[in-house]
Specification:
This protein is α/β, with parallel strands linked by helices. Helices cover 45% and strands 18% of the residues. The strands form four sheets. Strands 1-2-3-4-5-6 form a six-stranded mixed sheet. A five-stranded mixed sheet has the order 8-10-11-13-12. Helix 5 crosses helix 6. The radius of gyration is 60 Å and the shape is rod-shaped. The N terminus is likely disordered. It binds adenosine-5'-diphosphate.
Length: 677
């Protein structure tokens, strides 16, 4: 017998080497570091080495292998010695202990065995106290020893190093445990129950001393916990407050952004509306200008026409002088209307992107033929220079170049009294694909004072000099040239010295023709679209069939405006044509059914049936006019590109814009209804 433990000592010496550890009795979780190692000396000793932070999951695994071990029959119908080494346990919850103890109790009774004594190695004070409390519950006798070796020494009855703690076994009923738990509950929550060791009113010999010590420690821990909990709570509160402030700021900002987005949306809407309005206004402006141009052209047509007719009558010198002045003023007015209409077109972006092949030499010739007369009148040589290196075909917008140059040359002639005017083109650089040309109009005229150089490019600006007054002008010529040149990719520059002369110049790129064959067909004169220089007639239309022309061809004039009727009749009669008048399209068709006419001059806007519809009907054979192919010439105050296109589309052969000059009318009639001289 072991005197200390009062238990039966085994017949043979036991040691760890004699303990069998089968692999299926082991459990280890490398991740958490929890382990349960079970070993037995069959029916004599049951050793468990356990360690780590034991959670319920691990305990479940532990009882599984415990079952394995009992099933292998190593502990059956016997009384064995149990050793549990807790020295490596960092934590074990009460639930895991209860689960484990219950399982062990169950297996013991199932296999008719039980531990005679249990050695607990390396248990903490808390564990010891707990195990003491639960000693009866697990129905075991417990001996606490510091190490495993101490346990073996005691079992082998060696007194050497082994030192079993004095065991005061306490048997506690479940009811007492409940009461204790209730008491603990109070103690844990009220400092009144705290056991203050310094007062030392519980003697260390009292078997409950360790328990009181534990409770005291727990209470200290709890107080510490409560303190940190309070601090944590304060921190959480502060953090929450901070979060609340942030949240508020965030929601304010969100609101702000939403408001800004709304404002932005409104601004976008307003902008859209403004753009729509601007577009509508621009359309209205264009329409207004087209209308006003139409309205002005009609009386101007009468003024110019009648003045010209007047000049054909016998006038004395004074009368001729007055009439000449009327004619000049009327022509200036005509020019102004054209300029305004052009400028409004440029401003509203109605420029044509279309480019064509053209020969710069022919373009220069063309300008020369238009303006040489006025230069000659002032005895000013007007020369055009172009080096032979410039190819005969360039790709660009000849119409706009022509118009810009006409405006510049007109000004040069206007503001020069002696000397000369030189128009030149020089290549400045060349790539395989394009030519860059410097084009200039240089005069030896009055020049432009330094401080006025910028001013003259603004529209409706004329320098207040006697020359400008004398020569007249719209103040739009330079503005139009500037816009056209910038549309073509250049910019109009000026070098000028007062009283010495001016040079207006610009550099433009012209693409070279792609193929050699492209150079053969160039077009320097006007393609279809023109601005100020809208041709008075459209020359590309079908030519009449040649036959012996009558002496006084009969012309049907379809026109509702009485003054226009008078002007046209007078002009046509003067040109030796016979004229009949219809006041609208319906009347015209009736007339064409009855008499053979050589030509129809057709107004566009008339009551009952306008010019477009009338022409369409004339062309239909079923209408029954005598000659459905009769040349129809539109006579219109509408000078827009669309009008012109519409005329041709309706089946008209040509068109002439009001105001009509006698010479232009004569040329047109000669082309479409020639008369024998
Ligand atoms: P305008 O129809 O009056 O000629 P422009 O816009 O063509 O209108 O020209 C504006 C003004 O610039 C002219 O009135 C004139 O004072 C000045 N100007 C233009 N070209 C010349 C030039 N070659 N020499 C001197 N002054 C010129």
């Amino acid at each position: 017998m072991n005197p200390l433990t009062n238990t039966r000592v085994l017949d043979e010496l036991v040691s760890i080497d004699k303990v069998e550890f089968k692999s299926e009795w082991q459990f280890e979780d490398r991740k958490t570091g929890v382990f349960y190692r079970n070993g037995v000396i069959p029916n004599k000793l049951f050793l468990t080495l356990l360690g780590g932070d034991i959670e319920l999951e691990s305990a479940k695994n532990a009882i599984k292998i415990l079952g394995n071990m009992f099933r292998s029959g190593v502990l059956e119908n016997c009384e064995y010695i149990r050793i549990a080494d807790y020295s490596k346990v960092t934590r074990a919850s009460i639930n895991t202990r209860i689960l484990y103890a219950n399982t062990l109790n169950r297996l013991n009774s199932e296999y008719h065995c039980h531990p005679s004594i249990t050695y607990i190695c390396g248990a903490s004070i808390l564990l010891k106290t707990m195990l003491r409390l639960f000693a009866s519950y697990v129905k075991q006798k417990l001996i606490f020893v510091p190490t495993l070796q101490d346990a073996f020494d005691l079992i082998n009855n060696r007194n050497g190093t082994a030192s079993a703690e004095k065991l005061h076994q306490i048997t506690v009923s479940s009811q007492e445990m409940d009461e204790f738990a209730a008491e603990c509950g109070h103690i844990l929550f009220d400092e009144f129950y705290t056991i203050d060791e310094t007062k030392n009113f519980i003697s260390p010999n009292n078997p409950l001393h360790p328990l009181y010590t534990i409770i005291s420690l727990l209470n200290d821990d709890l107080r510490e916990l409560k303190r940190t909990e309070k601090e944590q709570k304060q921190k959480i509160k502060a953090t929450l407050e901070h979060a609340r402030v942030l949240n508020k700021e965030l929601s304010d900002q969100k609101k702000n952004i939403e408001e800004k987005e709304q404002i932005q949306q409104i601004l976008i809407e307003n902008l859209k509306l403004a753009r729509e309005n601007a577009e509508i206004a621009s359309e209205a402006k264009s329409e207004f200008l087209a209308n006003i141009s139409h309205e002005i052209r009609t009386p101007l047509h009468a003024v110019l026409g009648m003045t010209e007719l007047l000049l054909y009558t016998a006038l004395n010198n004074e009368q001729k002088n007055y009439t000449d002045t009327i004619l000049t003023s009327a022509k200036q007015l005509h020019h102004l209307i054209n300029d305004i209409l052009d400028f409004s077109k440029i401003e509203s972006g109605q420029l044509d992107q279309e480019k064509s092949l053209f020969d710069l030499r022919i373009l220069f010739d063309d300008i020369s033929s238009i303006l040489a007369g006025s230069a000659l009148k002032k005895s000013l040589p007007l020369t055009f220079t172009i080096p032979s290196t410039i190819p005969p075909a360039l790709w660009g917008n000849a119409i706009y170049l022509r118009q810009a140059l006409i405006n510049l040359v007109q000004n040069a002639i206007k503001f020069t009294y002696k000397g000369k005017i030189v128009v030149s083109a020089e290549p400045v650089s060349e790539t395989p694909f394009e030519f860059n040309l410097r084009i200039s109009v240089k005069d030896t005229g009055i020049g432009i004072p330094e401080e006025k150089k910028e001013l003259i490019f603004q529209r409706f600006t004329q320098l207040d000099s006697s020359a400008t007054r004398k020569e007249g002008g719209t103040g739009l010529g330079l503005a139009i040239a500037t816009q056209l040149i910038s549309f073509m990719g250049g910019s109009l520059r000026l070098n000028s010295c007062e009283n010495e002369g001016s040079e207006f110049w610009f550099i433009l790129s012209f693409r070279k023709p792609k193929k050699e064959s492209d150079t053969t067909e160039t077009n320097a004169s006007m393609p279809d679209t023109v601005l100020a220089m809208l041709p008075e007639t459209a020359s590309e239309c079908q030519k009449p069939v040649d036959s012996t022309p009558p002496k006084n061809p009969r012309i049907l004039l379809v026109e509702d405006n009485i003054i226009n009727q008078q002007v046209a009749t007078a002009m046509l009669t003067k040109l030796a044509y016979t004229v009949d008048i219809s006041v609208n399209g319906l009347e015209a068709i009736e007339a064409l059914k009855k008499k053979p006419y050589a030509l129809v001059i057709m107004d566009l806007q008339m009551p009952h049936m306008g010019g477009f519809e009338a022409t369409k009907n004339i062309r239909k054979p079923e209408t029954g006019v005598l000659n459905p192919n009769i040349p129809v010439i539109a006579l219109t105050a509408n000078a827009t590109k669309e009008d012109r296109e519409n005329c041709l589309k309706a089946g008209m052969n040509d068109f002439i814009t009001k105001p009509v000059m006698m010479q232009v009318l004569q040329e047109l009639l000669q082309k479409w209804a020639p008369r024998s001289q």
